[in-house]
Write a structure and sequence with these properties.
Blueprint: E1 2-6, E2 10-14, E3 19-24, E4 28-30, E5 33-35, H1 42-59, E6 66-71, E7 74-78, E8 96-97, E9 100-107, H2 110-118, E10 139-149, E11 157-158, H3 160-167, H4 171-193, E12 197-208, E13 214-217, E14 226-230, H5 231-235, H6 245-254, H7 256-265, H8 278-296
Antiparallel strand pairs: 1-2, 2-3, 3-7, 4-5, 6-7, 8-12, 9-10, 9-12, 10-11, 12-13, 12-14
Length: 301
């Protein structure tokens, strides 16, 4: 197989003109930075979790690029064009990766909480009444969906108009994409609630297939793409992180996140992200394995 590209945590290989193989590595990234530490078993948990959810959405009648597992940390998928030059995408382009990430939020957390707290987003813009100060972990009145860039070095939030201009989707196609996300999550949220989990938020990516029909691609519903809380702890008023957010919070506590954000705001050189200590690596590995088992109902080994 021919090596094509390496993302933050996945490698892509060409199997044929129509097929790729994804290899899920044990690398981990936060804040668009690859941490110089490997997390044992991480790649396998992400791969197998993704395969589980692809089968679930297939049963919902949603098109996906998933073909089959080809190893513990490998999967075969349908190949689509990746077009980083937005000007080369037209309203008639087929068989291409839509250059957007779609994020559905169900509880106030993460970067959305930061933006609300800083006044960058007003409560009424995300469904709350004017003047309300949302607490961390508070459910949104309705699912809140936003989009960001996919193929740029640092993801940036987009208005619907900006998203349409970049992707060349029609307004109807965009609405169909959002509807697909909410339909998939309705099933996902119901499944995980039975296993004692709360789906806080998550991202999804789509392509247009050869018939210019929406097709779910990449991976979703994992500890990397989505945020999960323990439901019993949430009912007690606690927010027990069961996703990559655990690692993000570690770097917030150490001060790295603040230093990084200050450097980005000042357009200054960004500080290198430090490695994770051994005890944290063990905790993160156990988290990924444990979450895999709770999300899928399967035993890891």
């Amino acid at each position: 197989m021919k090596f094509l590209r390496k993302g933050k945590v996945k490698e892509a290989y060409e199997v044929s003109e129509d097929e790729l193989e994804f290899v899920f590595t044990d690398q981990i990234s936060v804040f668009d930075k690859i941490i110089p530490t490997l997390i044992p078993n991480k790649g396998e948990t992400l791969c197998r979790t993704s395969a589980h959810w692809f089968q679930v959405v297939k049963d919902l009648g949603v098109r996906t690029h998933f073909l089959r597992l080809s190893g513990a940390n490998k999967m075969r998928v349908r190949r689509v064009q990746v077009i980083p030059d937005y000007d080369r995408i037209t309203p008639k382009t087929r068989d291409f990766l839509i250059p957007l990430e779609v994020i559905a939020r169900y509880h106030v957390a993460g970067s959305m909480h930061d933006r609300l707290k800083a006044g960058k987003v007003k409560p009424e813009e995300v469904g709350f009444r004017k003047g309300h100060v949302p607490a961390y972990g508070e459910p949104f009145p309705e699912p809140f969906v936003e989009v960001t860039t996919k193929l740029e070095k640092i993801d940036r939030e987009l208005t619907k108009e900006e998203a349409l201009a970049i992707s060349k989707l029609s307004s109807r196609e965009y609405d169909d994409l959002v509807s697909a996300v909410l339909r998939i999550d309705a099933r996902l949220n119901a499944d995980v609630r039975k296993r004692g989990l709360i789906h806080v938020d998550g991202k999804k990516e789509f392509a247009m297939d050869a018939d210019r029909q929406l097709m779910l691609v990449d991976t979703f519903g994992t500890a990397d793409e989505d945020r999960w809380w323990d439901a019993a702890a949430y009912d007690r008023g606690e927010h027990v992180e069961l996703s990559k957010e655990f690692v993000r919070q570690y770097y917030r506590r150490t001060g790295y996140h603040q230093a990084l954000m200050e450097a980005r705001a000042a357009h200054a050189p960004e500080p290198d992200i430090p490695a994770l200590p051994e005890d944290v690596v063990k905790q993160v590995s156990d988290l990924y394995v444990g979450l895999f088992e709770r999300l899928t109902g399967e035993t890891f080994r």
